[in-house]
Specification:
GO terms for molecular function: endonuclease activity. By secondary structure, the protein is of the alpha+beta class. Helices cover 19% and strands 18% of the residues. The protein has a 7-stranded mixed sheet with strand order 1-4-5-3-2-14-13, covered by helices on one side. A 5-stranded mixed sheet has the order 6-7-8-9-12, covered by helices on one side. The chain has a two-stranded antiparallel ribbon with strand order 10-11. The chain is globular, with a radius of gyration of 21 Å.
Length: 443
């Protein structure tokens, strides 16, 4: 489908909202079918890796990385990571070791209930030095169920059959495919972790769900999150930082109803409302039934592969701006040398035929912000991965691990497909006061 111009898209949705096409409804909470897994087994600390980044003198480094460690069948990732010899996992671990985050979210990491894959990746790859890098110990790990591959029992994609990846609460061939895992050097406040896997899309006021497409039965049960939304409080010295993790559905593979674009918009809106708190978040309930969002004084970082570029691609024109324009959020605008000039000649008009990027986008500031290279899928480089701290955290540095050709580490991201992933690791350094009033840093 040829994408609409952004102005036209915005007009369509504004008209639909004005006409009452998106009517909010409310329903009881559906309890989660699986308990999340938290593991915290402290181990010996290791030296900092020599990250190719700035401002490591103080603060907390938080990162997100879509690692493409998803496999075609349940158990395949567990098997791949059981030994320390998987080439892709070695390369992914090397990127993490080179940037040395204190807290890192991995998207597209298959979930298993016994969290074998998460534990094996930690011990066999992250803790083991890769290609001359120092290993990193992450004593605290969080993994929880995902909506991917959980059957809904209806024909969501209208192909005439019920069952399969596209007829699940989130696209997936098996439960947990394309899941998430969080690694941390700092303790997790386990009793305060909140998950929103079962929050129903229809319970968001003014949502963009295409009800006519889904019909009343599906509309009443369809969950908002294509994977899950997590609020994982991390304790750093005497302070708590809420790690708000998610991986909204890509706004593609749509028909004229644009169901995935709409869902992506609302999955991002969920965090915008959650961090606003108060009345804006009063409709939100977690998997335990608790309601509401964050308090105005709480510190947080929104992170993940949010699948929305502010300038290009097929996301809703207002999707990511809901966060980037929030008065509670700082956009550090992480950059890299490798993304600049990476767009091949003639690619701009192919990305969005109705809104080609300005020439400056090829090598200028916008180009340096890109975090993923989708040439193999025909969309080119985009900015879709974000680490967005709250304004009560001071940003001291940021970056995207995308070395330019000839720079150290460039081989990890070169090629189509690369040895690692079509996404790049994005990191941000923040400073926060300790109980004594100084800066804190994890080791």
């Amino acid at each position: 489908m040829r994408p609409m111009a952004r102005a036209a898209q915005a007009a369509v949705f504004a008209a639909a909202l004005a006409a009452g096409s998106f009517v909010p409804a409310h329903a009881a909470v559906v309890p989660a079918t699986h308990e999340p897994v938290v593991s915290g087994r402290p181990g010996p600390s290791v030296p900092w890796a020599d990250a190719s980044a700035t401002n490591r003198a103080a603060g907390l480094r938080v990162a997100t990385y879509n690692v493409s460690l998803n496999r075609g069948a349940a158990g395949d990732l567990v098997s791949d990571l059981a030994s320390p010899n998987n080439a892709q996992a070695q390369a992914v671990a090397e990127v993490i070791q080179r940037t040395a985050p204190d807290v890192v979210l991995l998207n597209e990491f298959d979930y298993d209930e016994a969290h074998e894959a998460a534990d094996s990746f930690r011990s066999n790859y992250l803790a083991a030095g890769q290609n001359g890098q120092d290993g990193i110990d992450y004593p605290y790990v969080y993994a929880a169920p995902s909506n991917t591959g959980v059957p809904i029992g209806a024909d969501l994609d209208k192909d005439g059959t019920v069952g399969g990846a596209a007829d699940s609460f989130g696209f997936g061939d098996f439960a947990g495919q394309y899941g998430m895992v969080l690694y941390s050097k700092h303790p997790l406040v386990e009793e305060e972790i909140r998950t929103f896997q079962t929050f129903r899309w229809k319970d968001m006021p003014g949502n963009m769900m295409p009800r006519d497409y889904y019909g009343p039965l599906v509309s009443n049960v369809l969950r908002l999150s294509s994977k899950s939304h997590w609020d994982v409080p991390v304790r750093v010295g005497g302070e708590t930082v809420h790690v708000l993790a998610s991986h909204p559905t890509p706004p593609v593979f749509d028909g004229p109803e644009r169901r995935n674009m709409r869902r992506n918009h609302d999955e991002i809106r969920f965090w915008a409302d959650y961090i606003s708190g108060g009345q804006s978040a009063s409709y939100i309930y977690d998997d335990d039934g608790a309601r509401g969002g964050l308090r105005p004084d709480e510190r947080f970082v929104v992170l993940g592969d949010l699948n929305a570029d502010p300038r290009r691609g097929e996301s809703h024109p207002a999707a990511i701006s809901q966060l980037l324009s929030s008065p509670r959020v700082t956009d550090p605008r992480p950059e890299s040398t490798g993304a600049a000039g990476h767009l091949p000649a003639g690619f701009g008009s192919f990305i969005d035929p109705l809104s080609p990027p300005a020439p400056a986008d090829r090598t200028g500031a916008a180009a340096r912000l890109r975090t993923a290279d989708f040439r193999g899928r025909g969309t080119g480089p985009l900015r879709v991965d974000y680490v967005l701290p709250s304004r009560n955290l001071t940003v001291s540095g940021s970056g995207v691990f995308w070395p330019a050709e000839g720079e150290d580490g460039a081989d990890l991201v070169a090629g189509d497909p690369p040895r690692t992933s079509d996404h790049r690791l994005v990191w941000v350094d923040v400073e926060l006061p300790s109980a004594a009033g100084g800066a804190t840093r994890g080791h």
